[in-house]
Amino acid sequence: xxxxxxxxxxxxxxxxxxKYTKICLREMAKKEHxxxxxxxxxxxxxxxxxxxxxxxxxxxxxxxxxxxxxxRRKTTTLTEYRAYHKDPVIGRVEDITPELVLLGVxxxxxxxxxxxRCGPRxxxxxxxxxxxxxxxxxxxxxxxxxRVVNPLIQEELRNRGVEWxxxxxxxAA
Length: 173
Prior knowledge:
By secondary structure, this protein is α/β, with parallel strands linked by helices. A hairpin with a 3-residue loop joins β3 and β4. The longest helix is centred in the last third of the chain and has 25 residues.
């Protein structure tokens, strides 16, 4: 993994993004996901750029670029694209810590990275990996949210006495 950071990004912020990226890649490297790549191969195939510019984060076949503005602004809502923002697994979640918002953003961009890097050679992604927020992306992101992000969100909410269903009440609106 090659990591670069902008001058206005702290080492702690960079390290948090790297930690979250590794957690996501470790999950996707599991044999059950049938990507045909080891954790080490996934690590070697990604470049991570960490910035603070108040811009969008993004992910592609060779790199992810994460803006840490979510931490600096103390953002407490993990927003998602309109096409799936009401989905109970990969949709919007409110009233969480900025660190968990950042984890969700990293998982989103790692899903794009896996989509474009592994999609062409992965049986279950062939034919549906090209659309940026389409079926292939959503399938990968669903894995990362259900296995990595959401359990940590649920734990944090439980510690505050909030049930997962309460945090998702906006879905019914």
